[in-house]
Design a protein that fits this description.
mainly alpha; 5 helices; about 90% helix
Length: about 140
């Protein structure tokens, strides 16, 4: 639970960085991060239930560790990030993106290898299309 809380707190930094770059970049980062925060909260809740906590205590603790720490991370980091010049902001954005790619490559790709590959090319194509749209919208 502490690990999830720290992870979610750091996610708040990524929100601050991406919104500092631009509203559209922040919206894209928020969409992707929310899609992973929700299952993270459910997983935390289920782990706590299986560890013997009551449903109410599990709900409260998972909310605190998975949901509340992200906005706290954003509130903590935004005053610092809002003063950073553009070159350092670009480096922070690259670091944030690299961290997300690392997590995807080390944790998600091995699991994806086990899945049915029927729709893999469609998902890959959709990802490439979204990337092209993002790049063209910034041009």
């Amino acid at each position: 639970m502490l690990g999830i809380g720290l992870h979610s707190f750091i996610d708040g930094f990524i929100y601050s960085i991406s919104f500092r770059v631009g509203i559209f970049t922040g919206f894209l980062a928020t969409t992707g991060m929310v899609l992973h925060e929700f299952p993270e909260g459910i997983i935390t809740y289920l782990i706590l239930i299986r560890s013997g906590f009551s449903e109410r205590a599990s709900l409260s603790m998972s909310f605190l560790s998975a949901a509340l720490t992200t906005p706290l991370g954003m509130l903590f980091s935004y005053p610092l990030i809002s003063r950073i010049d553009d070159s350092k902001l670009g480096a922070l954005l690259a670091l944030s993106g690299g961290a997300l790619i690392y997590v995807g490559a080390t944790h998600l790709l091995p699991k994806a290898e086990e899945e049915n590959k029927k729709f893999s090319i469609i998902v890959l194509g959709t990802g490439i299309l979204v990337a092209i749209i993002i790049i063209l919208s910034k041009a």
